[in-house]
Specification:
Blueprint: H1 11-32, E1 34-35, H2 43-52, H3 67-74, E2 86-90, E3 102-103, E4 112-114, E5 119-123, H4 128-152, H5 162-171, H6 179-193, H7 197-207, H8 215-232, E6 238-241, H9 243-248, H10 253-268, E7 276-280, H11 285-296, H12 305-313, H13 318-330, E8 333-336, E9 346-350, E10 372-376, H14 383-391, E11 403-414, E12 422-430, E13 436-438, E14 455-462, H15 471-479, E15 486-488, H16 491-504, E16 513-522, H17 541-555
Parallel strand pairs: 2-5, 2-6, 7-10, 7-11, 11-16, 12-14, 14-15
Antiparallel strand pairs: 1-6, 3-4, 4-5, 8-9, 9-10, 11-15, 12-13, 12-16
């Protein structure tokens, strides 16, 4: 037998193992019911995250505090969570009927409730991916909090540095800081963080809001304060999972309510027997693509269609958006804001009620049986399986949906190219498993050429969390024979639900068409181009509408 010597793992293999440890550990802690992130029970999570060093978390392994990663995470967690020692993950347990006011993070749709000065409840209705997302973000900010503690705590008795005392005075100031006070506070905070005055100044306002312009200082102070208390007073922060959440998770409770609501509305409007096309997109691109240009041509004379779409996408464009929505509602659109807890709103379009001469598709050829469009907002990770699996089940076990197609227009990280480019997948590789899903995509790269946007075709990786990817792992997927062009979080779950419904359960036609297209929100292989570097702005408008229009042209048989 030949002895094998000096086996060493590549960084990609180490990273893959770290991700596996993270997910196994998170499932174990969830089943356990509680853990202390900076205690012994949180060791494995912290060690795995530090071994992985995800791109989104920047300098997590360095002594200095990571600012861009901290901003990315804070925007996805409820305001005030940095002040709480107890974080309780719950199911939908009736807090919406209480006096507690829902806190919704700016960049994540989840309801959170501040119970008291020490406790924040986070409502989980979107499945395991939501839990993984929160736990990795919390692990990151707690690691950063201990970096702050290490730089300000001078001894175990609780003696703190001069800079910390000055920061505390600034934070306790009830009024908005003057320019001089702000710059003094930034100077002290920069010393605490191991960052330059300029670095802190550049990111300061991004943390703030109209009601809390100096929030950056509050976040840093409270993260450090609780970390100091963990060491000096042994007051460990604790994350708990409610018994009801542990009981309900994985049983499609919210997805079933969501899908049943849709089918009830289809039944009430006599649409259940018609050909159905499902589109996973946002809540404006399909409506705008059909109605906006004819409705707004006189307002925006001699302007291109994409100029109109950009105007509609601006934050203050409520007037023109309301005008387009009013036209859509008059022509058969039914709006279904979510009440199920999935946080997935829905629009239903009855194409028989649309005056096609007043749309962007005057040559639409819909045949005798006019189709129905079901447009659903973006799912989150594993939630994609739950929602499509429930939607494609027969209504009351006897009425099967005549689903003709399902189209996914999503946002993804790209591994070759830049923000705003388009990716057309032909397969989804499920990270961390041997699962892979090859499919015939009705969309092709050739359809998008000639629009001054780079287009890439090939396999895409469905990752367990965008915040758990690093350069080494992504380079492996891109440069090995997998030849992955991008990464996203839902594709494999959509395809798993589509294949089980069409091939095994036979609840939708076997030949249901699938369309996948993504536009790039970031390139995690490029420094300064990760999701933590900021949003797309108007860069995403053109690819979003280009993809939507190509999907609708196929559904409407526009040649």
């Amino acid at each position: 037998m030949i002895e094998i010597k000096n086996i060493s793992r590549s960084r990609a293999q180490e990273s893959s193992a770290a991700i596996e440890r993270l997910y196994i550990t998170m499932r174990h802690l969830f089943n356990r019911g509680f853990y202390k992130p900076m205690g012994v029970s949180g060791d494995t999570l912290r060690e795995a995250l530090l071994a992985l060093r995800p791109e989104i978390y920047g300098n997590i392994a360095d002594e200095k505090v990571e600012l861009n990663g901290l901003l990315y995470v804070i925007e996805r967690l409820p305001i005030g969570i940095e002040e709480c020692r107890f974080i309780n993950l719950t199911s939908e347990e009736g807090y919406s009927k209480s006096h507690f006011k829902a806190i919704v993070p700016p960049k994540r749709r989840r309801n959170c409730y501040r119970i008291d000065e020490d406790q924040m409840n986070v409502v989980i209705t979107r499945g395991r991916s939501d839990i993984y997302d929160i736990l990795t973000h919390l692990t990151f900010i707690f690691i950063e909090s201990h970096k702050i503690k290490n730089r300000v705590l001078l001894d175990e008795a609780g003696e703190v540095s001069h800079d910390w005392k000055k920061l505390e005075i600034a934070v306790q100031q009830p009024k908005k800081l003057t320019q001089i006070e702000k710059e003094k506070a930034i100077s002290h905070t920069a010393n605490i963080l191991g960052r330059t005055f300029e670095e802190v100044l550049d990111i300061y306002d991004a943390f703030g809001s109209a009601t809390s312009p100096d929030r950056f200082l509050h976040v840093i102070y409270w993260l450090g304060k609780l970390a100091i208390e963990e060491i000096v007073e042994n007051n460990k922060r604790t994350i708990t999972f409610s018994p009801v959440l542990r009981e309900r998770l994985g049983h499609h409770i919210h997805g079933e309510i969501w899908a049943t609501n849709i089918k009830e509305v289809l039944k009430e409007n006599d649409l259940l027997g018609r050909p159905i096309h499902v589109i996973s997109a946002n809540m404006h691109s399909v409506m705008n693509s059909i109605f906006a240009v004819p409705a707004l041509k006189t307002k925006f004379k001699n302007q291109s269609d994409f100029f109109i779409y950009e105007e509609l996408s601006k934050s203050g464009a409520h007037e023109v958006r309301d005008l387009v929505e009013a036209i859509a509602l008059k022509q058969g659109m039914i709006s279904l804001p979510d009440t199920s807890g999935t946080n997935i709103d829905v629009q239903i379009f009855d194409t028989a009620k649309i005056d096609w001469s007043k749309t962007s598709f005057p040559k639409a050829d819909l045949g005798d049986e006019k189709p129905v469009l079901i447009v659903m907002d973006y799912a989150f990770g594993e939630q994609a399986y739950e929602t499509i699996d429930e939607l494609f089940k027969p209504y009351k076990k006897e009425t099967f949906l005549n689903a003709q197609s399902i189209s996914i227009m999503g946002k993804a990280g790209i591994l070759e190219g830049g923000k705003g480019d388009i990716m057309i997948p032909n397969a989804h590789i499920n990270e961390g498993t041997a699962d892979n899903y090859f499919f015939e995509n009705e969309l092709t790269a050739e359809m998008f050429e000639g629009n001054d946007i780079a287009v890439f075709a090939g396999p895409m990786v469905t990752v367990l969390g965008t915040s758990l990817q690093n350069r080494d792992l992504l380079k492996f997927f891109h440069e090995s024979t997998w030849r992955a062009i991008g990464l996203e979080m839902e594709g494999a779950y959509y395809q798993k639900a589509i294949q089980s419904a069409s091939r095994i359960r036979k609840s939708v036609p076997k030949d249901v068409k699938v369309r996948y297209a993504y536009y790039a929100s970031d390139n995690p292989l490029e420094t300064g181009s990760t999701l933590a570097s900021g949003g797309l702005g108007t860069t995403g408008v053109k690819p979003t509408y280009l993809i939507t229009i190509k999907i609708l042209e196929q559904i409407f048989n526009v040649k």
